[in-house]
Amino acid sequence: MKKLILAAILITGLGTHAQNASFGIKGGLNYGATGEYESYSQVSEDFTSSFEDGENKTGFHAGFFAQFELLGIFIQPELVYTELNTEYSAFEYKLSKVDAPVLLGVNVLGPLNIKAGPSFQYILKNEIEDSNLEIEDVEKDITVGYQLGLGLDLGRLGFDVRREGSFQDNFAQGGDLATDSGFRIDSRPSQWILSVSYTL
After folding, report:
1. pLDDT of amino acid 178
2. Would the pTM of this model clear 0.85, i.e. be above it?
């Protein structure tokens, strides 16, 4: 978490030298799922495994953004709280996280813009609902994915649609693989993000 805060301070400091600095709030819906669910069970002395993709569900996000424009190109760092649920056949997996995308964008036609860049993800909490199964913390607190999308700015009001994907897996484990059975879930989501923003 400290790394995210330091990165945000650094980006903000650099942005003060840019033209047309602006700040605002944003929120909206995200639609997607975390990664593959892999379950293990022991048969005699060997383990067998099965795989399942989660069902996409709707979550939400809310947070802050800054935008720094220089020579027609803008940098947009954000700090956003996100909740996402994924439905598997036997349970729902709930994820709470902080996202810190740092996007590079350009205005292409009037109020329309395109943007893309890395998105840092810090897991706050992951849990399994409606089940007796227990799950451990994820392997890595911070991972890096990407976001790319289109934006529409109408005065102070902005509308945004993005696609988020991952560069790496980040598994959370459950059960006991050494003795009987277990499972793991890739916590890094693939999702669509729909946002409304307001520049202060």
Report:
1. 47
2. no
